[in-house]
Amino acid sequence: MSGIIGKKIGMTSVFSADGTYIPCTVIEAGPCVVTQVKTKEKDGYTAVQLAFGDKKEKHTTKAEAGHFKKSGTSPKRNVMEFRHFEQLPEVGSEIKADLFAEGDFVDVVGTSKGRGFQGVVKRHGFSGVGMQTHGQHNRLRAPGSRGASSFPSRVWPGQRTAGHMGVARVKMQNLQVVKVVPEQNILVVKGAVPGHKGSIVIVEK
Q1: What is the pLDDT of residues 135-194, one digit of tens each?
Q2: Phi, psi of 63 (to 5 degrees)
Q3: CATH code given to domain 3-119+169-204
Q4: Distances in Å between the alpha carbon of 80 and those of 9, 17, 34, 138?
Q5: Quick check: helix, strand or coil at residue 188?
Q6: In the chain, what are the domain boundaries?
Q7: What are phi and psi of 57, to 5 degrees?
Q8: Is 202 exposed, middle or buried (0-12, 13-18, 19+ CB in 10 A)?
Q9: How far is CA 45 from the centre of its chain?
């Protein structure tokens, strides 16, 4: 599906016509430069490669510099492919926020915030075990039993345990576009979007 690369600016809120309070996320959607158009005859599949965010030339490899030079643009930081564009754009053209309209429903993909090493209560929503009275302090947030001792005498793979939380690819589906500001390439979508302020997100139509 067609889409665009953007940057999460932050969260805000708006009121609908009937006075309903709507929490929203503000996204800077583009402008993205078309750096390559792949076709089924030449590449085996059809896709549009978009680039977003300026990058210093000293941090750009010669192969990347030559690739961006073909499309007539400066080096970019983020390059991604999108499929199923209704009309394939030309190399060097720009895709902006006006790709979307108010009322559209979009999927937003981002990387969730890192939470570090967390226990099972925060990571998986366990309720904790053990008594909370009689001076018990060391088992309140423990995971409890993770399997039988007789068979298989080990922990089955895939058990939910403590570990690293966050920094995962997350897709929020069917978020409604509340407002589009094409002059500033701003999208305001209903609800929350994964990632911290300034993180890169993908908005799919």
Answers
A1: 766 777 888 888 888 888 898 999 999 999 999 999 999 999 999 988 899 999 999 999
A2: -65, -40
A3: 2.40.30.10
A4: 20, 37, 10, 48
A5: strand
A6: 3-119+169-204, 120-165
A7: -65, -30
A8: buried
A9: 24
Pairwise CA distance, residues 110 & 20, whole Å? 27
Q: Please provide the DSSP assignment of 91-139 as one string.
A: TT-EE-GGGS-TT-EEEEEEEPPP-EEE-HHHHH-----S-SSTT--SS
Report the predicted TM-score, pTM, of the whole model to 2 decimal places.
0.81
pLDDT tens-digit profile of 63-72?
Answer: 888 888 888 8
Beta bridge partners, 98, equal: none
Which helix or strand (DSSP H or E) is residue 40 part of? Answer: helix 40-43
CA-based angle 61:64:67, to the nearest 5? 150
Which residue, among 113, 112, 96, has the nearest Cα to 203 in the 3D structure? 96
Tokens coding 150: 């007789």
> Length of the chain in residues, anyone?
205
